[in-house]
Amino acid sequence: MALAYFVASIPPILLFGKTNAGMLGSVVLSMVAALVVARFWLSRDGCLKHAWSLRPPENISRTLALAALGTGVIIALFAVGAAVIDALGLPPIDVSMVLAYVTQGPISFMLWVVLVAWFAAGLGEELLYRGFLLDRLMRLRGMRGRKWPAAIIQAALFGLPHLYQGWGGVLVTASIGLFLAWLRFANRGNLWACILAHGAVDTIMLSLAYSQSLGWLR
């Protein structure tokens, strides 16, 4: 799956370079490739519905409340994480590379919100990490059904691809990954609270960055 993700990320960059179109295409195509491989793997093992629990929530109010809680907690983790990173003497989280594309204009901003915040991150990363990866880990010999060891491992693996943000970004993202695993457990395995919280947080962050670029915020 990781190989499919990596290989699929290359063609858009070769075609368009490190432009907005190239980066958006790379993010979206790599996520699509990874999801296709993950779906095939889960379907082959008969685990698709369990791992990718996207059924309509039995209790919509509870799911929305958990999503709102998740959004607030994740934003708080960013704030606390920034203070911890500073206390440890690590460089601050650097997302300037991404924000440079997001803030190029209103169309670019909308595309990044829809294709990245909601599709690649909100939906895609939750299906891959809190869905596929958690399921695979909890089926390993010696770890069968053990939620929290699996949650810790998937959180670490969730943090590492964010190394482009610096080690501070890895640590904060890993802590968020651990919290999102709890959020899935709290919602009885259903992924919708995780998806909504993840998409909402990324949308808020991108919106703040775009507003700042327009001079609406300091």
Short structural summary:
By secondary structure, this protein is mainly alpha-helical. The chain is built from 10 helices and no strands.
Q: What can you see in these coordinates?
A:
The chain has 218 residues and is mainly α. Helix content is 76%, strand content 0%. The radius of gyration is 17 Å and the shape is globular. The mean pLDDT is 94.
- What does the average pLDDT come to? 94
Note the main sheet. Answer: none
The fraction of residues assigned to DSSP E strands is: under 5%
N-to-C SSE series? HHHHHHHHHH
Runs with pLDDT <50, length 5+? Answer: none
User: Total number of β-strand segments?
Assistant: 0
Task: Compute the number of helices.
Answer: 10
| Overall radius of gyration | 17 Å
